[in-house]
Amino acid sequence: MNRLLILPFAALLAGCLPGQEPKQIIVDGRATIEVMPDLFTVTGNIRSRSSSRADVLKDISEKLNVIREKTPSLQGLTHLSIEATEAEFRPILDPDCREKRRYDGAEVCPVTGYFGTVGLTLRGSPADLSGYVLSLISELGAEQVTLSTYTLVDRENAEQEAMENAVANARRKAEKIAASSGSSVLGVIRIQYGEGFSDSERYLYGRPMVSSPAEELSPLDSYAPETALDLDPQPIRITEKITAAFEIE
Questions:
Q1: Do 74 and 144 lie in a common domain?
Q2: What is the CA angle 109-110-111, rounded to 5?
Q3: Whether residue 143 has pLDDT greater than 80
């Protein structure tokens, strides 16, 4: 009776021994795709300087309202968000007094005026209208206007495509190596994201893919800047790398 119990267990144990591991080929796979961007980010500042505190605040507020009112109506623009999240307001001290106070620190300098600024961030699409937005908000009173970035609405799908291409690239490599030794590839044993296996492995299957959601905005009306600035968005390159182990016979 004991033999009947021991023999199946011995057979199972033998199947787990290192010598029973399947023959395999370990290769790296890599793929790069280019995707045209569909979102842009433009940043800028609204500034004002005056002898009156009230005039500074009024000037900034009026310019901000005009930008919020007219920019969404830019001709051809389909999505846009305007954020004014950074602001500064401070007095301007007499410069001669400030220089003197640097040395003795005793005198209280008189206020000669006031300065204020509000930072703007505009995100919208299509990407090829980024220059038009830059031109328009400059004409409406924004300063230090900069085209910050181009991005993708659905980066996750683009990354998935690049990942699938990387896996296919790894399989082609494995098949070439196997064919050169008179073998053939049976299937994949495991795939890891990145290059090289390690103790802290991150496997491809179940790997979380994170991306920023596209903003839900309604179509806009028609408007155009006085001077159009045509910019040429360049493709975004997405590269994925994996390491794969393939069983061979």
A1: yes
A2: 120
A3: yes
> pTM to 2 decimals?
0.71
Number of domains in the chain: 2
In a domain, 223, yes or no: yes
Q: Is there a contact between 20 and 14 (Cβ–Cβ < 8 Å)?
A: yes
Dihedrals φ, ψ of 230, to 5°? Answer: -90, 115
Q: How many Cβ atoms sit within 10 Å of the Cβ of residue 214? A: 15
Q: What confidence category does residue 244 fall into, taking pLDDT thresholds of 50, 70 and 90? A: very high
Q: Which of 151, 186, 203 is the last residue of a domain?
A: 151
Rounded to an integer, the average pLDDT of 228-232 is 90
Domain at 207, CATH number: 3.30.110.170
* Claim to verify: residue 122 and residue 67 sit in the same structural domain: yes
Residue 81 and residue 56 share a domain:
yes
The answer to whether 113 and 47 are in contact (CB under 8 A) is no
- Read off the pLDDT of residues 150-173 as tens digits, 9 standing for 90 and up: 999 889 999 999 999 999 999 999
Gap between the Cα atoms of 206 and 197, Å rounded: 17
